[in-house]
Amino acid sequence: MELLRSNLSRVRIPEPTNRIYKQECCISFATPRSEGGLFIDMNSFLAFGKDYVGWNYEKTRNPVYLHIKQTKKPVPEDRPLKKPTLLAIGVEGGFENHEPEYEESHSIIILPEFVSLPFPSVELPEKVRLAVDAILMAEGVERKEQVASWTADKKLVSAYAMNLQQIDNGVIVPPSGWKCCKCDKTDNLWLNLTDGMILCGRRNWDGSGGNNHAIEHYKETNYPLAVKLGTITADFEGADVFSYPEDEIVLDPLLPQHLAFFGIDFSSLQKTEMTTAEKELDQNTNFDWNRIQESGEQVEPLFGPGYTGLINLGNSCYLAATMQVVFSTSSFSSRYHKKQSLKQAFESAPADPTLDLNTQLTKLGHGLLSGKYSVLAEEKQEGIPPRMFKAVIAGSHPEFSSMRQQDALEFFLHLLDKVERANAGKPEQDPSRSFKFVVEERLQCPSGKVTYNKRVDYILSLTIPFHEAVNKEQLETFQRLKAEKSLEGKDVSADEIVRPRVPLEACLASFSAPEEVPDFYSSALNARTTAIKTAGLASFPDYLVLHMRKFVMEAGWVPKKLDVYIDVPDVIDISHMRSKGLQPGEELLPQTVAGSGVEASKLSANEDIVCQLANMGFNYLHCQKAAINTSNAGVEEAMNWLLSHMNDPDIDDPISQEAETAEVLLSFVDQSKVDTLVSFGFEEVVARKALKTSGGNIEKATDWIFNHPQVSASTDMDTTSSSAQSSTDEGLPDGGGRYKLIGLVSHIGTSTQCGHYVAHIYKDGRWVIFNDGKVGASVNPPKDMGYLYFFERLNC
């Protein structure tokens, strides 16, 4: 007891705001039910398994811990079964769920000798007794986050929905091809339900997201409600409707009527639920479910290293399927398992390792690959719960932090983005680079002159050319059969349905096929015309991820999943897809302003921006200059320029043609954007170079800095846009074009936001199915039904 009294200064009584962990170790998957129980640090309130609590003592010198141990209660063999009186499971009077019961014991442990003191005990110091009582009574962080995720999905009806005024200005919203009315953003778009304006969302702290045009529009007009495009389905309650005055996602009971006002027909969505096509889709979904999950097959359970499942936390199968395939790659398994021990990750982690992505990826990697949590037992396969990893990777993301189903593709890209940022400055350690490659696009105008554009990507997204189906005769026979049965008032059975079967080679060919680009500005012809675009890969990644575009939006806003098989060989060769860059005899198009396709000498101020600034009291000429010098990016950008150039000696000079040339615009860097990047911790000179290289776009500038960690303030990187493009593939992996299939993520359901995801991975010479917590030897892997395909370069 004296030992405990001498360490009372290291014991804290938790306050309501403290994060208390008591269900899972922060660096392993040990729980109170594990053999050694769980140790709660009574200073930091972090939890550790028995094998890891010593590491925490070495790092923090915190010696006092609350030990929680849960032991399974024995079940008497002659226990009589209770007759249920309620139609419920696991509640008094309901059906028994046969889940084992546990009894919990507590003690005080003092390290490093693991001296044990019983609890409860009146001999313990009052401070210790109060601290333990507070810990046991508090709701653990794990439980809090889970409850918060569920309750966050409960929307309240907006006070502005029932009496919303809508302006009949002739706006009809198409089902696709949206773009912000005030910038070039094509994602994170919101439709204002009053006037039909489509505008981009808020800018995130790191420059990603939108350009704040939707909220600026609200401030100008006070039109209260907007719906996020891309979230609208037949289940209108699932749509994201934001109320600006209420500052939260809300429910609009009249959303179908409000959308119909702008030509978005909800009635057609509802009507299709009982059509023959919908019945067919329902039959196909049932078939998908059985085929992809291999229901009815005698799947042999597998155990050991690399065969650990992931427990579904509630619609988290998209995360489980994606992470299983990701950790089957040598880049991720090496970075977060083979080359980094749990102890190394913990020692380099901040004070709270539960908030550190590197630690939680290492924890997840060791959990999946070590075999520690995948041992042959009489009980069912359990798997491990990726709670802490999900909390870190989702962060403040509005979708991934919820308990709703998500798109596995979007999550995969989000994961790689977070991993890349976490490894900024250490490209040799960044496993996301193994997926990164450069796409090169060649555009040729009727003058014969060309231009080349490069962009970096992680996935190759492929359209499915149905006209290349190899079973056209069977499809025609099926269509005749369906027409005959329709006349008889009958439906085709699931066994009779024939799907198109398209070779993967045809999908890859469609990516590289020539494509017309209308309304292309040719600086050679000094006019708008139609150009021909072709695409290829300037580098081949270590791991090639193919995304099959199986989800489309038809006219009338009817979402449709394409029912199609893709014939995917085990080995592919994409060597013919390598781009060759500028060829001898080709002549480049003359440069345009920042590659925008608008002739530099004819750039003029956007009148809307000028008028809004002038209405604020600024000089009209100054407003014109502000709009021109920010390339008409928006009111906020122009105002920032104006405020920082009010005292320029030439601010009152007339606008000259020379002032509008490409050289002047390219050399301009908005000081407010520089200040934003500096606030992220970047050097000012580096921030200026990044903004200059990326045409003033903060998001692209941030990515440029992360992709060029070797650049310092002393490095001369003032380049033109063409040289910036040539540096996009700098240091990326490259090699031959032959790849072997190592994994696929399949989807069951009518939308990426519902249904179920399953992974199949080729391991140890056989295909293995990963279905949440279940892992088994695959009997018939659905290689023709994948949503995402993962290939590894053969010489990787």
From TrEMBL:
Single GO MF annotation: cysteine-type deubiquitinase activity
Keyword Repeat in annotation: yes
Residue sites binding Zn(2+) per the record: 180, 183, 200, 213
Annotated PROSITE patterns: UBA, USP_1, USP_2, USP_3, ZF_UBP
Ranges of residues in domain USP: 308-794
BP-aspect Gene Ontology terms: cell communication; protein deubiquitination; proteolysis; signaling
InterPro entries from the UniProt entry: Papain-like_cys_pep_sf (IPR038765), Peptidase_C19_UCH (IPR001394), Ub_carboxyl-term_hydrolase (IPR050185), UBA (IPR015940), UBA-like_sf (IPR009060), Ubiquitinyl_hydrolase (IPR016652), UBP13_Znf-UBP_var (IPR041432), USP (IPR028889)
Family in the record: Belongs to the peptidase C19 family.
Name of the protein described by the UniProt record: Ubiquitin carboxyl-terminal hydrolase
